[in-house]
């Protein structure tokens, strides 16, 4: 049951379809229903079954959290459980994430939730990315993008701040466009308003020798160069697990790798 202030399930499905760039005909064909029936669902003339909502959400690649919202809007109970990461049911996930982070030493790696709040990080990330950062920014829930782009974060140590900032904001904007997530949208508006004294390129173009957008970070008089990879849990059936992202930073040159390995030996 929906209220006047709550979008109907048809309205929500239409929004997800449009964000995905699909026509009614294309989605109906993929889901094995008539475009007439889909039109009736979107306009509220037909109440979709639970199975229909889940089928359409699957073909629209809707996140699990939003699938539960669709079900609630359609008058059904949520299908996907949601637990705190500290819950006993999440112990295997916590252990796997911790193993990945620890195994990535001496290179930095961290885990974030859907809003980029830091869930966990390894010692290298705590040392390299947290150096000189305001304690207020590191207080839970600490947001990785805010820490990276805020003038009281490690932004002053990013040599190519304009390039790195543009890359992060474009990635975040794409997520907002695809999901319509209000939390991500608010985060984007906050971050885009932060100051930056470097030019932010509208198009990402490689510099000499670059194959990825690098993070060039000053640390103890050294310019360390990184690229990052993002990893997610492959087959999630639980909301929190589906939203965990592991970002692992790798040295982009031999000098950075040598420094990190030497630094790790000196501190252990």
In short:
This protein has helices spanning 9-19, 24-31, 35-43, 50-59, 64-73, 91-103, 123-128, 135-138, 144-149, 161-179, 182-192, 239-243, 254-267, and strands at 109-112, 118-121, 215-219, 222-232, 245-251. With 268 residues, the protein is α+β, with helices and mostly antiparallel strands.
Can you characterise this structure?
The chain has 268 residues and is of the alpha+beta class. The chain contains 13 helices and five strands. It has a five-stranded antiparallel beta sheet with strand order 2-1-5-4-3. A hairpin with a 2-residue loop joins strand 3 (215-219) and strand 4. Helix 10 runs antiparallel to helix 11.
SSE diagram, text form:
Elements: H1 9-19, H2 24-31, H3 35-43, H4 50-59, H5 64-73, H6 91-103, E1 109-112, E2 118-121, H7 123-128, H8 135-138, H9 144-149, H10 161-179, H11 182-192, E3 215-219, E4 222-232, H12 239-243, E5 245-251, H13 254-267
Antiparallel strand pairs: 1-2, 1-5, 3-4, 4-5
Helix pairs in contact: 1-3, 2-3, 10-11
């Amino acid at each position: 049951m929906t209220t006047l202030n709550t979008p109907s399930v048809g309205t929500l499905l239409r929004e997800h379809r449009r964000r995905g760039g699909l026509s009614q005909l294309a989605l109906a064909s993929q889901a094995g229903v008539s475009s007439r029936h889909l039109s009736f669902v979107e306009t509220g003339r037909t109440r979709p079954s639970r199975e229909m909502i889940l089928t359409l959400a699957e073909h629209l690649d809707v996140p699990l959290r939003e699938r539960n919202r669709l079900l609630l809007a359609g008058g059904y109970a949520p299908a996907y459980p949601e637990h705190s990461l500290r819950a006993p049911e999440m112990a295997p996930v916590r252990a796997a994430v911790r193993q990945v982070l620890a195994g990535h030493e001496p290179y930095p790696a961290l885990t974030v939730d859907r809003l980029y709040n830091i869930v966990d990080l390894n010692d290298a990330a705590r040392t390299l990315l947290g150096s000189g950062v305001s304690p207020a920014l590191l207080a839970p829930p600490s947001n990785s993008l805010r820490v990276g782009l805020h003038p009281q974060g490690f932004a002053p140590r990013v040599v190519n701040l304009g390039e790195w900032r543009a890359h992060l904001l474009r990635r975040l904007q794409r997520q907002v466009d695809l999901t319509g997530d209000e939390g991500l949208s608010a985060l984007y508006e906050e971050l885009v308003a932060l100051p930056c004294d470097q030019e932010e390129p509208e198009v990402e173009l490689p510099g000499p020798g670059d194959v990825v957008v690098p993070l060039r970070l000053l640390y103890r008089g050294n310019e360390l160069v990184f690229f990052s990879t993002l990893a997610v849990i492959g087959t999630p059936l639980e909301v929190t697990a589906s939203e965990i992202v592991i970002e692992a930073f790798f040295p982009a040159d031999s000098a950075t790798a040598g420094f990190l390995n030497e630094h790790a030996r000196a501190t252990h």
